[in-house]
Amino acid sequence: MLSTKGQVIERLLKGDFICRTTDEDGWRFLKTPANREQVDDYLATLNRMVATVGSGADSDVFFCGYRQLDEDERKVVGQQFRDVCNALTPLVEWLVLVQEAGAQDAPLTEGSALRLNELQSIVEDTPAFREQLARISHYRLFGSTSATVDGQIKQVFKRLCELGYLVRPNPDKQIYLGTGKLDYLYEVIRFIDETESLDLEERAESASQGSLL
Questions:
Q1: Which 3 state secondary structure label does DSSP give 35?
Q2: What are the tens digits of pLDDT across the range 76-87?
Q3: Does residue 6 contact residue 14 with C-beta atoms inside 8 Å?
Q4: Which of 25, 87, 124, 147 is deepest in the core (most CB within 10 A)?
C-alpha cells in the first residue's frame, strides 16, 4: 500500500488537482512545508514541481507543473491550454446559469455545495433557464442528446464530475461539491482576460508553471 507521500505524488503525476474537497489527507500533507518539499524534490527529478492556485490557509489547490519548458513540454502545455480554452464557453455558460438560478453573489468555487434537484426545479420553472440549459448541455463538452431538463442536467453534472470540476461525496444524495479545478479555471480566465490581445498559446508556454499550467 502506498504511503500518503506516494499517493500524493501519484495523483499529481496523473494530472489531478488536490484540494481540501477532493483529498483532505493529501491536501493537509502538502500544506506542511517539509512534506511539500519532499514531494517537490522527487518531482524535480522528472522536471516537474508542485504548483498552486489560491492563497490563504484553506484555499490552496495543488497540482503538477513543469520546471522548465523544452520542445516536448511546450507541446504538452500548448495542448493543455488549447483544451481548457476549447471548454471555456460551455463551462462559463454553465457557471453563469448556476449563479443566476441560485441568485448567488459569488460564483461556484472549491467546497461550494450544489444540489441537483433544487437547481433542476428552478430551471424547469423558468423558460429562460430551460433554454440556457438546453444550449449548454448540447455543447460537445457535455454531449447531451436529451430533450428533457432531467436528462440534460444529469448529463452535465455527470460530465463535470468526470472532468474533475465537481465531486459527489455521497452516491445516495444529489449533492455535489465544487473542486479546486474550478479555482484553476478562474485563473485561466483571468490570464486570458489580461492577455487577450496577445498570442495566448505563446504566453501560456512562457508563463510561470507555478502560477498557471
A1: helix
A2: 666 666 777 778
A3: no
A4: 87
